[in-house]
Every structure is written in structure tokens, then in C-alpha cells.
Design brief:
Elements lengths: L1 H4 L4 E2 L9 E3 L5 E4 L24 E8 L13 E15 L6 H8 L2 H17 L2 E6 L5 H22 L8 H16 L3 E8 L2 E11 L2 E9 L8 H15 L4 E6 L3 H6 L2 E12 L3 H22 L2 H14 L4 E7 L11 E4 L10 H11 L7 E5 L5 E5 L4 E10 L1
Parallel strand pairs: 3-4, 9-10
Antiparallel strand pairs: 1-2, 2-3, 4-11, 5-10, 5-11, 6-7, 7-8, 8-9, 12-16, 13-14, 14-15, 15-16
């Protein structure tokens, strides 16, 4: 845990044998190493009384309430105060024999049809393959995938105009360093969706016994019409059920997809363990509890989202740009002499990929059969032609 303890002195206590703590800037308050950089913790309490006087107070982040029920004996001088911070979402898989069975049970008939349609369309339009890296992997391949992973996250959150904590250099270095040895030991995995040899969706999973923790997930936003995130979830559920994983845990934080797919909703709590016989310890507990209850109040008001948007604007120091796609009215195929063929995959034209992929989705065309042209006698106008269909559009940026 060198990423999070830095040069701070580590502290252990027989009361909480599962953790090592570091001191905070608040006197007598100690937090577990890694803090919120986990996807849920469980722990035990040693109810044997300490004889020496102790005013230390311990803050433990991200207690997973589905798998953990903590209690202290009534006669123990140490007590627990709990504050709910985030919802958590869990897929219970052990009673299902296939992902199709899970989907029929969990989703409506219309949702099942739509989700399977997205998958068929994606695999029709592109050369799609799926790979779960779980066990042996070369360091070169691992480095390549993590580089692609980071690029996709940056692209995704630039589009959302929000900062992302995972991209904080300290946090990202943590994930990069700890995941490779865990992957070799089958305690972690990278699930990758490829278009040919290009990663277009990546999910980082951690494992504990028969639980898979969905840690970070991202997809290439250019493929948004194909609901690439949904397809990724279907394939991961399929892998988990096939390999005897009993739970796929989406972990903390609300997203609409978690609500749709999960069978169970639970809470993530922060636990404050304090000495009820110590005035100093009780005071620290009340201050800490009030602080996190207030943070949760702000979070429920979506203040955190506005904060991430604000910090993104400060970093970028620019006004948000909105991409517009405007179909030409009274569509007619342009004259051949006004068409200049351009490469979809030229780096200068990557901003047009989303329009090409939207065309593929709407018209059920294959990428290999599509040609893109610049219409030379109209500014910012383009012509896409497939085997059976064609479309013309204008693409440009507007500043808000």
C-alpha cells in the first residue's frame, strides 16, 4: 500500500486485526490504508478488552453491508457509529445456469429483445471478438491494454465534461501496479471487447472467492448506438455463470445500468470505532460522523456531479463544444465529380467515426463495405455509402 500510506507511520491494533491504519491530520483519528480505493471491505472485531487507556478513534471506509454484519459486545468500551455513504448493486448468479436464463428472469421481454439486437448489430457491422484475460498474460500485452484503458477513460470523461478520480495519477498508478500480479494469480481480470485488434471496451475485475467485483469499466463512445456497455455486461455475466462465480458486484455508486441488471441493492457504510469511555474519542467520533453525513447530503443533491464538472472546466480552461450532426434536406446523391474519398481511420478524420457508426447501426451495414466521402462543393458535408444504403450529413462544432 505504498501508494496510499506514503511515508506515514503505520499503526495496528488488536481490536481490529484485519487492518493497518495511518494517522490523519486530526489528532487521535486513524483511517484504514487505501481509504476509498477499495470496492468494499469486511472485517472482524476482537471483543477482548484492552487494559491500557486508549483514546484513538478509527475510521474505516467502504464497509460492504451485503457480506458483512459487524457487532460489538455490549460490555465492550469500544462502540461503532455507522454512516451510509453510497448504494451498492449486486447480481446474484448462483441459481442460474446461463446468461439467457438470467436475462429472462431479470429483464422484460422487450429489453431482452433490444439487448440481443444490439449484440447482433454490433457483431454484424464489425469484426468483434471478446477476451477475458485471467491468468497468464505477457507484461507487454498488459501494458498495451492498460494504455488503451486509460485512453478510453480520458475520451469518455472528456465527452462527459467531468473529472474522474480513477484518472488521478496516484490512483491510476495504484491500479496499474497492483493489477498485474493479481491477474497472474487469478485474483483480477481484464475483460476486453475488440474490433479486430483494437480494444473498444475494457472492464477491470477483482475476485474474492466466488465474487467478481466490477472495478472500472469503460467503452469507446463512438460505438454508443450499439450499446457497447450493455453488450459487455451480458458477456461478463455469461463468463461469470460459466465459471462458477456466484456474485457479480457492481460496487458503489448509482448508475442506471446497475439498477437494471442487479438483483440486490445494499449500502456502503463508513464505520467509526471509538472509545465510549473517552471524552476525546467521543468528540472526534461526533465531528467525523457529522462531516460524512453532510457529505452524503450534498451527494444526494448531486452537488458532487457539479463539482466534477467544475474541476474539469478548471483543468481544461475551455468552453464546452457540442458536436452537431445535421442531415441535409431533400437528400440527393452528390455528383461524382464533387466527391473526394477520405479514410475513416485517418487520425484527421476520427471525429467523424461516431457518424459513420451511427449510419452502420441505423442501416445494418458492415464497416468493411462503407466508403466515406467529403462533398467538395459544400462546407463540412460528407457522404457515406454502403452496399445497400447511403446518407449525407453536415458535421460541425458549436460553442455554447
Amino acid at each position: 500500500m505504498i501508494h496510499f500510506s506514503s511515508k506515514k507511520k503505520e499503526y495496528s491494533t488488536s481490536l481490529l486485526p484485519d487492518f493497518t491504519f495511518i494517522k490523519t491530520f486530526i489528532p487521535l483519528l486513524y483511517t484504514n490504508i487505501a481509504k476509498t480505493n477499495t470496492k468494499g471491505l469486511t472485517y472482524t472485531i476482537n471483543n477482548k478488552q484492552e487494559k491500557k487507556k486508549n483514546s484513538k478513534t478509527f475510521l474505516i471506509y467502504d464497509i460492504h453491508t451485503y457480506f458483512n454484519t459487524i457487532s460489538i459486545k455490549d460490555d465492550n468500551k469500544y462502540k461503532i457509529r455507522k454512516t451510509i455513504q453510497y448504494p451498492g448493486y449486486l447480481c446474484e448468479l448462483e441459481n442460474f445456469l446461463s446468461v439467457n436464463e438470467y436475462m429472462k428472469k431479470r429483464l422484460s421481454k422487450s429489453s431482452n429483445y433490444k439487448f440481443n439486437l444490439y449484440k447482433r448489430k454490433l457483431e454484424h457491422s464489425f469484426e468483434i471478438n471478446y477476451k477475458m484475460y485471467y491468468g497468464a498474460i505477457t507484461k507487454e500485452k498488459y501494458n498495451f491494454l492498460f494504455y488503451a484503458f486509460k485512453k478510453l477513460l480520458i475520451k469518455r470523461f472528456n465527452d462527459k465534461q467531468e473529472t474522474n478520480n480513477n484518472l488521478n495519477p496516484k490512483e491510476w498508478d495504484f491500479y496499474f501496479d497492483v493489477t498485474y500480479p493479481m491477474l497472474l494469480e487469478k485474483k483480477a481480470a481484464l475483460f476486453v471487447t475488440y474490433n479486430k485488434k483494437t480494444p473498444i471496451a475494457i472492464t477491470l475485475l477483482y475476485f474474492s472467492d466466488t465474487i467478481a467485483f466490477d472495478t472500472i469499466r469503460v467503452f469507446d463512445i463512438d460505438y454508443a448506438p450499439f450499446r457497447l456497455g450493455t453488450i459487455s455486461i451480458i458477456k461478463q455475466l455469461d463468463w461469470c455463470i460459466t465459471n462458477g462465480i456466484k456474485f457479480l458486484d457492481f460496487s458503489k455508486g448509482y448508475y442506471e445500468y446497475k439498477e437494471r441488471w442487479a438483483t440486490t441493492k445494499y449500502n456502503f457504510e463508513y464505520h467509526i470505532i471509538y472509545n465510549s469511555k473517552s471524552y476525546a474519542s467521543k468528540t472526534i467520533m461526533y465531528i467525523t460522523l457529522a462531516f460524512f453525513n453532510f457529505k452524503n447530503y450534498l451527494r444526494n443533491k448531486n452537488i458532487h456531479k457539479k463539482f466534477h464538472q467544475f474541476t474539469f472546466a478548471l483543468k481544461k480552461n475551455s468552453t464546452k463544444k457540442i458536436e452537431k450532426k445535421v442531415p441535409l434536406k431533400n437528400f440527393k446523391a452528390p455528383k461524382k465529380e464533387n466527391l473526394k474519398e477520405i479514410s475513416v481511420f485517418d487520425i484527421k478524420n476520427t471525429s467523424l467515426l461516431k457518424y459513420v457508426y451511427d449510419f452502420l447501426y441505423r442501416k445494418s451495414e458492415k464497416l468493411n463495405h462503407v466508403t466515406l466521402y467529403k462533398i467538395t462543393n459544400h462546407q463540412n458535408c460528407y457522404y457515406i455509402k454502403g452496399l445497400q444504403n447511403a446518407d449525407t450529413f453536415t458535421a460541425y462544432n458549436l460553442k455554447e
